Amino acid sequence: MTEDRAPEATSPAMSLHPQQRAPEQHEMPLATVLGQPVLEIPKDLYIPPDALEVILEAFEGPLDLLLYLIRRQNLDILDIPVAEITKQYVDYIQAMHEMRFELAAEYLVMAAILAEIKSRMLLPRPPNEEGLEDDPRADLVRRLQEYERYKQAAEDLDTLPRQERDTTAAAAAYMPDRSTLREPPAVDMREMLLALHDVLKRAELFTQHAIKRDALSVRQRMGELLDRLHDGAFHRFESLFTAEEGRLGVVVTFLGLLTLAKEQLVEIIQEAPLAPIYVKSLATRDAPAELPESEFDEGDGIAASTDTSEAPATPAA
Predict the structure, then answer these.
(1) What distance in Å separates the CA atoms of residue 50 and residue 260, rounded to the nearest whole number?
(2) Looking at the record, which segments are called Disordered (predicted)?
(3) Whose CA, among 156, 246, 253, 280, lies 20 to 30 Å from 30?
């Protein structure tokens, strides 16, 4: 490699075109210290033998390295100064060897191609059929232009948004449909609980003689309530409960009323605090209501079981 460097200092190509050395002034500085660029390594700078060496440029092949050397000096790819580029290319390969980096064989092949082009540029070239001299750089220029197009296309693709790099898929939070939200009944819940307390007190007055296990379903009780309210008139809140069913039967009826009010199938009103509570069905015979599933039922619709009497008993004293 040292034999190729000697003639470059006095080669006609370098002497005839001194302006080719001008791009060297535009090279990137090694570092910036106190705002001033450092173009050369200070002579008194001590670097330990075992110091960490970091290579910032990463090349994907010899064409990538060659294109980097050309673009770094703002050279025209159609008029490559082969002598200068070959020198820089060989210097880079030697630096990699000194730092004990293993280079692929294709880097050495490119160095040989550059050396061949350099030697052919120094020799006289016979004209072709059209009377023009063949340019030894033509094939290399074509390969560089093709590689540059692919490289630019890859960089353009890399700027596009990429999943898991620029964007992250996130599941949208569940937002309930406002149009399906139902307003609670106008009657205060405390008033309904007071009325329920009165019904429970009356249910406690009944004693049970015979024990029979009955399954109570809130959904089934909702259908029974709608049947009792099918006339469209207002019914007293207390009249909808059957005290003989005991406390659990009263609770199931109360839950059925709450579910019907939530689904806007019944209307519950009260004229004033502590006044009687009335219930009216909003469903008509022409458009019967479809009973919704109750959140209080379990499994196959069985809500609970209770002890009921086969016959009403005498109220306790």
Answers:
(1) 83
(2) 1-22, 289-317
(3) 156
